[in-house]
Model the fold of this input.
Amino acid sequence: MSDVLTPEAVETMQEPAVTTEIDAANESTPLVCSCGAGPHETAADMCSNGHFVRGNSARRTHGHYAFRDRGAASLPPDLRMTVAEFKSQVISDRGGLDELSAIEAARIGHLAEVETTLRLLASDLARNGLLTKRGRTRTVFGRWLEALDRWQKLAAHIGDGRRARQVPSLSAYLAQATGDENPR
Done:
C-alpha cells in the first residue's frame, strides 16, 4: 500500500491502481466458485450450488483484515477523500511531486497511511468512548497514542515548512517560449 507516488496518482488524487482478486471479481465479472458453478440467482456471495465464493463478506464480523485485503476501497468515502486531500496538501507544501525525492514521496505515503489509522482509531474512540463499562481505558486509546507518536516522527522527517517550487528564470522561460536556444 505504500507505493511511491506517481504523477498520475497525484493528479487524479486516487491511490495507484492496484487490483486484487477481490476487487477484480467485485467490479468486472460475477464471482465464480471453485466448483465451476456460476453465480447464485439471489445471493451475490454464493455460487449456484450454495458454496461461498472467494472474496465474500458473509462471515466478516469486523474489518480487521478489510483494509489489508482491499486497501483504500474498504474505507468510508468521506475518510478516503479527506486522507487524499491531506496527502495532496503535504505534497504541495513540499514543492510538488517533481521536487520530491523517492524517499520523501515514500515518507509522505507512510504519513498518509498513519493518518488513516489515526482517523479510524479516533472514530472508534468517538463511537465507543474512552472507558470500558468497568471504567478501564480502552486498548484502542493506547494504539491511538502509538500511531500519533509514529505520525509525529514521520512528520518531523518530512518537515513542517513549505518549500517553494523551483521555477526557471524569466529569461530562460522567455527563451523557451520563443524557441531560442541561448537565453541572454
